Amino acid sequence: MEPELPPAWLVVREPKSKQPNLSAAFASKQDAEAYLASGDAWPGSGIILDSPEAKLRLSAFPLAEPAHVTVRENWLKRHDKKLEPYLKVPKSCELLVYVNGTDYAPLASRKAGLCPLRKGEQWPACSECGKALGYAGVIRFAGSRESQWSHGDALVVFYCFECMPADGDAGIRLTWLKDGDALELAKGRGSGPARIASNWELTEYVWDWEQDEKIGQLLHDQAAYAFFTFMWSTKIGGNLLWIQEDETPTCRCGKKMHYLGQISGHGDLEFGDCGVGYLFSCSKKKCLDTKMVVQCS
Ligand SMILES: [Zn+2]
Ligand SMILES: [Zn+2]
C-alpha cells in the first residue's frame, strides 16, 4: 500500500479565468513543464498545483497515473457537500495505478514487462485457435485485502485476444504463482515495456447513469463517473460493477464464486471495447478454482 499520494501539477487552459480547464496532470512540476513545452498543450495554457481549494473545470480522463488519483481525491474534497447525496454504497478497494519502469520483482503487479512462467513451461496457446495467448498482466494478491481468497501470491492472466472469449477455459489461462517457485521471465505477446503498479487504498461508489447529467450540471465536471467508480480499472476487491448484466459465475461446488478484483487491458491488448476481465475464486479445498469473465461496452 502506498502511504501518500503524489502532488498533482496541472496543465490548465485559460489559467487566469474563473474556472481553468484541466488538460493534464503530472506528479512532478518538471513533467508538467515538459508537456507545456512539447506543443501538445493548448496555446496559452499554464500550470497550477492542485488542491481541494483549486478552482477547476475537469474533463474526463482515466485514472491512469498516480497524479490522476490525487486529482480525484481533491475533486471529492472540493465538492464534498454537493456530492454527498450521490456517494452511494461506499466500498474500499485497492486501485492499481501504473507507471513505466524496468525494476520489478518477478511476481510484482504489472502490465506488460517480462512474463513469469514456471521453469520449463511453454508460453501458453489458445486451445480454440492455437495461437499464442496474450499476456494481460500480473496481479499480486499476497498482502492485499483479498489474500485469503487467493490461491497463490500472484495471478498471471493470459487471454486469447484473437478469439476474445467471454468466459470458460478456451482462450483464458489463469496461473497462480508463489514466491519461491522456480520461475523464468519470458517474452511473448503482451510483454512490451513494463507498466508497474502501485496499489492505492481508495473508496469507490456505485455509479448511477441517471445522476450523470445532474452532477455534470452541478459541478461542470464531465469526469464525474470516472471518479465515482473504478469499473474500467484494474483493482483488487471493492464493488463488483458489471459493464453488462450480472454474470457472477457459479463454481462446480454449486456456490457463487467470490469476486477477487478485475483487470483491464493494455497497449494493443484490450478486452474488446474498453473491456474488463472480472476475476473470481472459490476457496473450498476441493475446488480452489479461479475464473475470469470478460465484458466490454
Ligand atoms: Zn484463440
Ligand atoms: Zn467451489
Structure overview:
With 297 residues, the chain is an alpha+beta fold. The protein folds into two domains: 9-86 and 201-231, no CATH class; 96-196 and 240-295, no CATH class. The chain has five helices and 15 strands. It has helices at 29-37, 66-78, 80-83, 212-219, 224-228; strands at 9-13, 21-26, 46-49, 88-100, 110-111, 115-118, 134-140, 154-159, 172-177, 183-186, 195-206, 235-236, 258-264, 276-281, 290-295. A seven-stranded antiparallel sheet has the order 5-11-4-12-13-14-15, with no helix packed on it. A hairpin with a 7-residue loop joins strand 1 (9-13) and strand 2 (21-26). The two termini are 30 Å apart. The protein binds zinc ion (ZN) (2 copies). One zinc ion binds at residues 126, 128-129, 131, 160, 162-163, 171. One zinc ion is lined by residues 251-253, 255, 282, 284, 287, 289.
Summarize the structure.
By secondary structure, this protein is α+β, with helices and mostly antiparallel strands. It has five helices and 15 strands. The longest helix is centred in the N-terminal third of the chain and has 13 residues.
Give structural attributes:
single chain, 297 residues, 2 domains, seven-stranded antiparallel β-sheet, three-stranded antiparallel β-sheet, binds zinc ion
Strand order of the largest sheet: 5-11-4-12-13-14-15
What overall geometry do the principal axes of the alpha carbons give? globular
Q: List low-confidence stretches.
A: none
Number of helices: 5
Structural class: alpha+beta
Report Rg: 20 Å
Number of domains: 2
Mean of residue pLDDT values: 92
**Gap between N and C termini, in Å?**
30 Å
Largest sheet: 7 strands, antiparallel
SSE string, helix = H, strand = E? EEHEHHEEEEEEEEHHEEEE
